[in-house]
Specification:
single chain, 385 residues, alpha+beta, Rieske Iron-sulfur Protein, 2 domains, 7-stranded antiparallel beta sheet, globular
Length: 385
């Protein structure tokens, strides 16, 4: 193995304070009240990556997304425009659609009393409301949810006063605008139900301190000390909603596959030093972004309870590459499925340990500045010491 690039944490002992800091206590990961605050302040007020436009190519195509207690319906209208709505009827609040996805839906019909909405969200039918006073169907369309596209992805925000996405996480978007992400195609999805708090999963993704003992295959291809952190949640007076780093390939390896090599061409725009790197970013609160030279892997982490989470892991490849007769993504998908499961197992062990009466918190290692910054960012926004 060639000598790894030393991972750089410039000034983190002065700026981030992780070398002198203690980790949060177990209640940070187990308390129901804390989770309720996190849903309200983070998941209901942030731009969340919910999927791709290609998932709903035709009018009436839709998918739904569970976000805490809310359900969001993303649908392409008969006018061809993609919109998002709360997945509830304006009559009695009934959940409208229970399917995760569907094709060519002509209208949205409430199963309870048959109130009917167009795919553009307008109320077009409401039986026995003709005699109601001060009632107009025009005022009772589906509740809208802000939705913005970027590079083929769809981002939703439940906050009615949300800033445009470019004003909110524009730095992250700008870092990847140069790549041909709109050309990608969703090829595989893995869904995991995990017995661990969502923050433990974010913390795990934010450090490679664990990579040598937990992920020997990953560490063989990208040494855990190879790479550099390029952005932080917390950096002096600066606050960001994303943090990122890259890891460099050992020797002449080309991608995170079983062999470390790939016959697939790089994604459009990936050239030069980018072909020697995997970019790992966390976009607050729940997106794990892993750009390889020949594919993009995206994790979306959805909290279910203080001790359970669901993760969607999507694999995107160049559409032209995926159309080739000999295309086979299993060399990447199967390896990452193994790495994922290794992570989930150790996170579940950590979750069980968090319930101990004697554990009141620990210490960060020198390899965990991003974990410290994430924890500090969450605690600051929740007002937790």
């Amino acid at each position: 193995m060639s000598s790894p690039v030393v991972r750089k944490f410039p000034g983190r002992d002065e700026v981030g304070g992780h070398l002198a800091a203690s980790t949060p206590p177990g209640s940070f990961y187990t308390d129901e009240q804390i989770m309720r605050q996190e849903l309200e302040r983070f998941f209901y007020r942030s731009w969340l990556n919910v999927g791709r436009e290609e998932q709903i190519p035709e009018p009436g195509d839709f998918f739904t997304k569970e976000i805490g207690d809310e359900s969001v319906l993303v649908v392409r209208g008969t006018d061809g425009k993609v919109r998002a709505f709360y997945n509830i009827c304006r009559h009695r609040g009934t959940r409208l659609i229970v399917d995760e996805s569907g094709k060519r839906m002509r209208s949205v019909v409430c199963p309870y009393h048959a109130w009917t909405y167009s795919t553009e969200g307008a109320l077009v039918g409401a039986p026995h409301t003709e005699d109601l006073k001060a009632f107009s169907k025009e005022n009772f369309g589906l509740f809208p949810v802000a939705l913005e596209p970027w590079a083929g992805f769809l981002w939703a925000n439940l906050d009615p006063s949300a800033r445009p996405i470019r004003e909110d996480i524009g730095g992250f978007l700008a870092d990847f605008d140069r790549f041909g992400l709109a050309d990608l195609l969703l090829v595989r999805r893995k869904v995991y139900d995990i017995q661990a708090n969502w923050k433990l999963l974010v913390e795990n993704f934010s450090e490679c301190y664990h990579c040598a003992p937990i992920h020997p295959d990953l560490n063989r291809i990208t040494h855990y000390m190879g790479g550099e952190v390029t952005s932080y949640f917390v950096d002096g007076d600066r606050r960001s909603k994303y943090t990122g780093s890259y890891m460099t390939f050992n020797e002449d390896f080309q991608s995170m596959t079983w062999s470390g090599y790939t016959g697939r061409p790089p994604i459009r725009g990936i050239e030069g030093e980018d072909r020697r790197r995997i970019y790992y970013y966390v976009v607050f609160p729940n997106l794990f972004w892993s750009l390889h030279p020949d594919f993009l892997m995206v994790h979306r982490t959805w909290p279910l309870t203080p001790g359970t989470s669901r993760i969607e892991c999507d694999f995107y490849f160049d559409a032209q590459t995926a159309a080739r007769p000999d295309f086979d993504p299993s060399d990447a998908v199967d390896l990452w499925d193994l790495i994922n499961r290794q992570d989930w197992e150790v996170c579940e062990r950590a979750q069980r340990g968090m319930r101990s009466r004697v554990w009141k918190g620990g210490r960060y290692s020198s390899q965990e500045p991003q974990v410290h910054d994430f924890d500090a960012y969450v605690r600051e926004r929740l007002g937790i010491e």
